[in-house]
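User: Hi! Is it possible to get a structure for several chains at once, not just one? Here's what I have:
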Amino acid sequence: MLTQGIQLFVQELSNFLTLRTLFDVLWATQLGMIVGMLPGLTATMGVALMTTLTFHLPPTNAVLILMCMYIGAIYGGGRTAILLNIPGTPANAATAVDGHPLARAGRAGEAIGIGTTGSFIGSVIGMLLLATFTPIIGRFALRFQSFEFFWLAIFGVVISGNLTAPKDPLKGWISGFLGLFVAMIGMEAIHAHVRFSFGHRPLSGGIDLIPAMVGAFGFSEIISMMKHTRVELIQTKIERVIPRLKTIWGFKRTITRSGIVGTFIGAIPGVGEDIAAWVNYDLAMRSSKKPEEFGKGSLEGLIASETGNNAAVAGAMIPVLSLAIPGSAPAAVLLAAMFIHGVRPGPLIMVENPAFVSSVVAMVFLGTVAMLVLGLSAVKQIVKVLLVPRSKLMPIVFTLCVIGAFAINSRTFDIGVMVMFGLLGYAMREMDYPVAPMVLGIILGEILDTNLRRALVISRGDLTPFFTRPISFALFVIVLLSLVSRTSWFISGRKALTGAIVGAVRAMVGRVRG
Amino acid sequence: MGDKVNEDKGMPRADFVTGLVLLGFSAAVLYFSVTMPRLEHRGINPLSAPGVVPGLLGVVIGVCSLALLIRAVVRGGYRLTLSGGSLAAFVSSSVVRRIIVTVAICLVYAWGLVGRVHYTLATFLFVLVFVLFFELVFGQEERRSLARTVWTATLEAALVAGIVSAVFQYLFLVALP
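Assistant: Yes, the chains can be modeled jointly so their relative placement is included. Here is the combined structure:
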């Protein structure tokens, strides 16, 4: 099986080795890096806008460009975090904590080099796990029926709400369920009945994910960028960028851990690179020999964050390919793009189109290599992009948001959707509601809708199969735990219970010894 | 949900208002789901009626917003103070003014101009007005001569409008709005 997988990978990779494809890889990764570097242009927005620009291309080329864009953007944001103390994308917030103090100390080049290497290794680890776990999860998911898919949709929204709104999960859940509702608008999939359109013709076609995302991540970002006053770029000398192998080797434990943890966090539905970076940063600090350096320019913290966020990119593709559920917001756009191009990921992909999984692995590989090469070269020139003032950049971005929302279906209605979701997204952000669960909800809405009703018809209205089928029961328990684990009575109860258990074990051990 | 530790944190007043709005929204969703046709004349299973899932979502959103509302009330969010003075201070703050201007220019372009005026002209005007407003009126960027600011803004607007129109029309074969 392993040799077969490697064979497929090599075959797919060699298919990509044409001049045209390699050129696509290079420009898409470079553009992704620039998008990631510019504050206000996030990976999600870049991938969403790029989807509108590539939908005339053949499917594999389009997905390859999007994948490279995604990898480049998550990496590129680290550059701004280090030089400006502003994360270029939310995924690089943890990078800024230690990267910027390093730049202030005149070690910007070293920080960029370490960050690049971390991103590269993280991406490679993520790629290996993507290749290993996608077929396993895909095969396992072949046993899923409507009952399981129902719980999976609920689990996605709940866990995404939990993790993207750590201070107030209730708001994360509300955001997720609102997203599920948005998916209810328009024609439903079982009886072709039009819901919630109130006689409005374009609305009966439903709300498209891409215009909604371009608005929620693009327009709302423009508003919050323009409200702040100007920021200053610190002028720092960038000397040696290529890191010493000895330095990297010294962090081998941190890098391996961050790669693996980052991939798994990326694979959790709707939980993306930003959370992966923070969790890894936290883990690195706890296990570090020099925790006092964290926040003051610790290379270990920087590498943990940058390894984690790029590993999460590959991780986010695992559920996309095996379950058709996105692991992060940019992955949601990639999933939508695959549907636009007629590729249908999900449990059946290992049966119908096993080469596609290897193809995506090969894409991640190409994007990762391009990122390393571009990341270690032309550093000084690319940084100049940051000198473009926002008052000049943002109108261009909005122009692209408008035409991008329009281009896919050639409907002015979609421009309206983009604007509405932009305003909604901005209001949500101001009131501490995360946007990612809503986007996930829009994708999971149809899965929830058709599978819940199908399940009810199969069981003739009996609810017990939702709780008695083994996989269903396991998913239900996970959902329940993610819900109650955030309530104060559960936390205090857990502490009391742990205390009681520890006490009982001690007493038992004492008795045995006695 | 009953996070009593963070009683002074958060935004109870905003939560109170959004809680009310969401509660109204969920009630509307529930109403429209219950009154949605059950398609009996097509002999379909009532358990697969189109209104089942939206109705359940309405209930869930309702429960969540009720929790939000109760928490906001416990934290004193119902004490809404809205005076003319605070409203005036809100509108005159520079951050709010910048937000209003950004949204206004974008809305006029997206809803007013695109589709009515020729796309290239609409885009040119939008970029020009946006750049000039933020560089001259808010003076966000460093002061340069007026003529140079206007000149570069016009150049940028013309380039953006021309390139975007051409790329989408001839390269991506999109019929421009």
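The first helix of chain B runs from residue 12 to 34. Confidence is low (pLDDT under 50) at residues 1-8 of chain B.

User: Great, thank you!
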